[in-house]
Amino acid sequence: MSVVAKHLPHPFLGRLRGAVRAALAFGLTAGVAIGLLGLSMSSRAAAAPSLTVLMSDDNPAHSEFVQQLRANQEPGGRFELVRLSPTGEMPQTIETAGADTEPRANAGVRTRSMRPSAADANLTMAVGVAAARAAVERPGQEPLVLAMLSRLDYEALKAASPALKRSDRRVGVLLRDPAMADQLALIHAVLPQKHRIGVVATPESEPLVRELQRAAQGANPAWDVHVEYAPDARSLAAALRTVVPVSDALMVLPDLIGDNQAATLSVLRAGAGAGLAVFGASEGLVRSGGLAAAVSTPSQLAQQARLLGQKVASASNNNSSPLVEAATPATVRVNATVARGLGLRLPEERELTDRLAATR
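RE: above sequence
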């Protein structure tokens, strides 16, 4: 084996000799002094956090989430963005930057294996469903956070991916929607005298319905939740005719109805015709005629994802169950025009947001 020695610059040699002489003055040997110097440098390198982000689409919310992650990277940390194919199956490009590197159009891009080395694998974060699926299926033991998933996305991934329950990997899941308890707290803040909520759901929405029912039973006072199921678009109208007369307000779940513009508009029209407020979990619903929604912005989610990553990284390996968190904090959005039409005088969005935070 041959060793190639590189000459160090004279100024650096001078500083190094000075450090060694100073150490010797305190009774240390040259070897110990140099060893301590190397230990200090390696400790700083080891302490610098590293984040590998997997992304498989150009969804604007996902892009904003990733930009916020990059902007909040700790000084000295390493940020690596792995762009997967749209299916999440093949790595395309990898953008690597330090925390102090500004994102720019001509940022250095290199391609290599999707598996990071041990030195830069402190935490992996997958953004969106396809990236989450790819991250769960690939081998590795580094801590993993799956972000920007709906509750139903996560339930489907859990059912289809036994690897999600592997005992050798710590996993956190950040849902993009606030908890049902937050949604009910918002409705109570807006309609304090009401207690009946009407929901039209699809059969696939059962996990959301169960969460809503648990939150309703645990509230004080408890809510009466009336649920009707619409397995297809044709049955939506019939379900609404059943649920509207027994409800004080309607809720649109983040499911196949909430994700479908035509179905959401049907719920909004039914609510408007009966003089009922409609609540949901998206700004789009508020813009389309809903009264209010508790939502979390991509920037808020990015901050929460970092905190969740710290929890996952520091957790023990004894529990193989993923750590699942709903989005929090939530921001309240209100449609003032709809409020006036319903004869309601509502607090400002900021005040409602503060009230929501106070209930947690």
